[in-house]
Request: fold
Amino acid sequence: MEDKTYMLRALELAKLGAGFVNPNPMVGAVIVKDGVIIGEGYHEKYGQLHAERNALKDCRERGNDPAGATMYVTLEPCCHYGKTPPCTEAIVESRINRVVIGTLDVNPVVAGKGADILREHGIRVEVGLLEKECKKLNRVFNKYMLSKRPYVVMKYAMTADGKIATVTGESKWITSDEARENVHRLRKNLSGIMVGVTTVITDNPSLDCRLDEPAVNPVRIICDSHLRTPLDSKVVETAGGIKTIIATSSDDEKKGR
Reply:
């Protein structure tokens, strides 16, 4: 039961990285010794330290020695050099003697290799605690790694009788304040948001992330075959601060140009 409690804490920490670690997965780690949490951390931002190294850093800053401790981590520790050194290396050097992993990494560069390296260094490794929850946490990352395709969420507002706009074309504020907040939270968690040019012309949306907390705006993608996006629209006027892509098409080839 104690193992589950610590993994739940690791999951809680991992979620703090939502929106900031893309395209990396969200990961949380907790270090426990003699029944006491002596260090914890999470992957805070893409390009920065991973959860395991942040937890070890926190452990030492508290004046604790991780030797002989157990680390609970939501995702298999990496074993390759990327933006940061491999976490397996840091774990081995710390002399932690047990690592409980929520789920193995589906990234083929890792995919079980991290756990094997830890075992080869005499560390007891257990895999699969709260695996369903840990996999769900990174369903976006896992989808891309396994299929090389993006994880797509379709969002629309509809009335109880199946309408998305009034007879006059008005379509704003069909949903409640709570629903609109959920939309912005979804935007925070995903990398991009796509709409058709008609939405831009009709609603003139900002397509940004507006929450009372730190957040990263998604890349805005406008499907606009004939370049009808108004120059005075919000997406154009704010394009200097938020990455915006206009996806258009050309019939030059048909015309033999």
User: Anything to note?
Assistant: The two ends are 69 Å apart (CA to CA). Strands lie at 28-33, 36-42, 70-75, 98-103, 124-127, 192-196, 219-223, 244-247. Residues 2-14 form the longest helix (13 residues). The chain has a mean pLDDT of 90.
